[in-house]
Amino acid sequence: MKLLSIFFTCTLLFGSVTNALIDSQSPYLLQHAYNPVNWYPWSDEALQKAKDEDKLIFLSIGYSTCHWCHVMEEESFENEEIAELLNRDFISIKVDKEQMPHIDTHFQHTLTLLKEQRKGWPLSAVLTPNQDILYITTYIPSTDKYGVDGMKTLLPKMVKLYSDDKSRVKKIINSNKKIIEKKNMVEKSKVHKSEIANNYVSLMKKRYDKIYGGFDRNPKFPLATHMQTLLDIYLLEDNKEALDMVKYSLESMSAGGIYDHVEGGFYRYSTYSDWIVPHYEKMLYTQAELISLYVKFYILFPEPRYKGIVLNTIKETEKRFGHDGLYFSATDADSTEGEGRYFVYSYEEVETAFKQEKIENHEEVMEYLDITEIGNFEDEFNNVHHNTGFDKEPKNIQIALNILKKLREEREFPFVDKKILTSWNALMIKSIFIASYFDKDLIKKAEKSMRKLLEKTYVKGVLYHSFYLNYEPVDKAVLEDYVFLVDLLQTAYMYTQNKAYLTLAGYLQKETLAKFYVNKKFYLDDTKFRAEALYGDKYYVSPLSRLYHTLFTQANLTYDLKLLVQTRGFLADERDRILQFADNASEAVRALLRSNAGDVIVKANQNNLLSKQKDILHIKYPFILQTTQNTDKYLACDEKTCFAIDKEFKNIVKYIEKR
Question: Is the pTM of this model over 0.85?
Fold first, then answer.
């Protein structure tokens, strides 16, 4: 509805004038199709046009549910004066970062190296016709403010520089290249393999927020991959510091406003350290990674509220993201009334509703949910969370939350980006397999969704990155699609013991190495652009880091010693690079720990193995695989031999944990 209203409004303002984005399928690009800016999508044609006309490129990267992207569009890209500057002197290129994650990753990494600035969207850059960077940042205001040049100042300044001072342009380009080269240099790590875990914990302690939990200050992201690595370190080494950081963080998040207590699901991040007020986007990858993490945490600390969080998050994701067994990419923070207004409440409306429903302790309930007259959000509105000043939960909380849910039903839900991404769907479906710990029926549901994903995105032997409703897929798969899909297939195999899944995983994995490993480097794409793959876990796990785990899994489930040696070789080559910034490369650190500790493979006949699914998850060792063998006993094996055989599963567990 929101997208249609944008089109309608723009049509009234600008008539039927459109730009080259009008033929796109991406909702983000279509949002800009009626701008007076003469936008082009990222393409060989647009890049060549910049060279042919010797014009600078203005590059803008964002996504459809990005709040500050909306702000910059309204301030600058709908502004006729700014549009005239762009159209006269620039080739303006729009990129949907979800449609082209490799392009986005490259420029976000470059921004961090050149300006030591927090990454984010919209990303804005001025490039030469040869795509060298003259200027790069995130949001740019339309006029000078916040101590920076606005678009009206910056654009003419860049054009004058490029036209009148080629020697300075060359100096800027060379200087940028030297900075990037220097910061990408890898130093020899002094961390011994026995110290990797403790070194990682020490680094994370420096980022840990002792007051509110979580890592860094604000904005504060969930960072599920970091917490998963800390949990594994706890299981490997009984490191209580690692456990305490995860435990307090997950407790604080579950009580805080980053979790939607009314409908379920997690918002993208908290705007401040205390978790109370979030940024109200919900991203599919956030739900996927936190579902998996909370299941694994529940196994260690079985508190009912964690189970509720998992099941309610799945339920809300099905409701808002789900379509025919698959999942859309994101929901917006903004609604017609403003940012977050679908999700927040005024004191008066809640008090009136609670009184009407005769909640006799409504004042206590409102205090517990932090619904106050002054509000905890802007304009005296309130975001629901649990007040930690209470010793126990007051009665009638569930009744109160149901009333709050009914109040939302009267509002218009924010825009949903109906792009279906292979990679993010694979993450989500894997998390549903893991959540089957609470409900075995979820295995069938996950299996059905996985088959649907393959049907829609793996067409005639070609894997695609995404598709849109009522359209055939167009964009070819990138590294994250292959890696996360292989990871899903391997997970599906272990939950069903259907060998067809493991076979397909092996085939796609070989294709992954053939496409994305070139001249001893991994890349995010196999296009002309060739963005180098990175270890940093951004807002979701690094596909390069997860790749190592899928290689270990495939090697040890199929006893492919050649692949095992190759994987260890990859890691050995990259060890120093990983450890140089270990706290930002959590999944890669986990791969190093896994390589050192080794996998344990549990074997039994299919019936026995599947009957012990839950018990296997309780084994206090993080790197457990499972595969079928025709025997009436249980076996525990390492990468070369089976070190325990017994008819009693509990004895196998003892062998593994003692080892």
Answer: yes
